Design the sequence.
């Protein structure tokens, strides 16, 4: 009887889950949730506390801030936001940031 490496089993389960998500077009939604749930980790507590609404539509990150000062600061740092989100996503997932 051959022994299987537990990592092989985990990788095959991950592959099955990835195929399932892609088959039902859920892989993008999962990335959306990962990004939204990781917002504080990516941008810090101060920004997360001032973020009222966050969602992704058509590769654009939409943010509603409850501070006009914070919104203006983030407007100048849009590329940093794009880079951090894409790094978390593992690909070029968003191309722009819009503020409401």
Sequence:
């Amino acid at each position: 009887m051959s022994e299987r490496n537990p990592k092989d089993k985990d990788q095959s389960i991950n592959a099955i889950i990835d195929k399932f998500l892609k088959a039902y077009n859920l892989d993008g939604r999962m990335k959306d949730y990962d990004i939204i749930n990781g917002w504080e980790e990516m941008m810090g507590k101060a920004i997360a506390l001032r973020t009222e609404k966050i969602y992704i539509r058509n590769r654009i990150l939409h943010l509603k801030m409850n501070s006009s000062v914070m919104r203006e600061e983030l407007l100048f740092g849009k590329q940093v936001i794009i880079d951090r989100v894409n790094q978390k996503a593992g690909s070029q997932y968003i191309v722009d940031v819009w503020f409401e």
